[in-house]
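Handout, section B. The chain below has 288 residues.
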Amino acid sequence: MNGEDSDVTKPKVSVIIPSRDGYRNGAVPRLLESVTRQTLTDYEIHLVKGVSPQGKAINQAAAAARGEALIILDDDSCLANEKVFDQLVSALEKDPTIGMAGASIQMPPDANPFQRRAAKQFPRFNMPEVSEITDSDFACHGCCAIPRRVFQEVGGEREDLIRGLDPDLRVRLRSAGYRVVLIPNAVAYHPLPENWRALLRMFFRNGFGSAYARKFHPDSVYETHERLDATSFRSRRSFFFRLVRFPFRLMTALLQGQLIRFAAYTAYACGYLWGWFQATPSALGEGR
């Protein structure tokens, strides 16, 4: 599926959308419709269906991509305005030190009350729109642009992870000397699960994926930051530090009245324990 392209001229941008079924309860058509409204029209689209884990799906699309820049989108995201592609790609062109240019992830206007309450308790789902290019750990696969040459230079995505692609890729980009940033006037909508059951299920899966990584690929386990500015961020902590910190995070969430966050962390811990004792290498194919 292409934007304004021809058989002779390569597109400027390759849009990559990994998806289990190419529909996602109607989210994929909404995403594609928001792509067609972009002022940057020189693109091709690679919608990769039914490939797991997610890293493998992205790598397959990147191998077929012809654009100078890759724009990766989650299949349940949606572009908030028609300038997102322009803003992301312009930042890459103006500053060759940028390895990942991300959009701020926010709740969609039609989010239900539960999703809005949850977003206030999880900063990574409720990012402020930045006024200047900002080095941040918040840039993510939900909506980001990466120069294709840089993606190839760092080895693409890992294909041996169920969860944790974002922190792994950010660390490898920074280690190669590139910046990971959020871009002004670039916003993407990405909803949290719409009810308690779906949210707890998601965090249980994330906990399982984290245990899988710790068990089979401990080198891939990195921190995620909860502050916009990444200047004080440390990407790696010891397992002991993370283990001791976890109950304090639970207690803090409870004392602050963040019951959704408390329940989500508890589900994550249950998923982690289940994964630690039950995960096998064959679980990799269930990563998406």
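Note. The first strand starts at residue 13 and ends at 19. Compare this with the example in section A.
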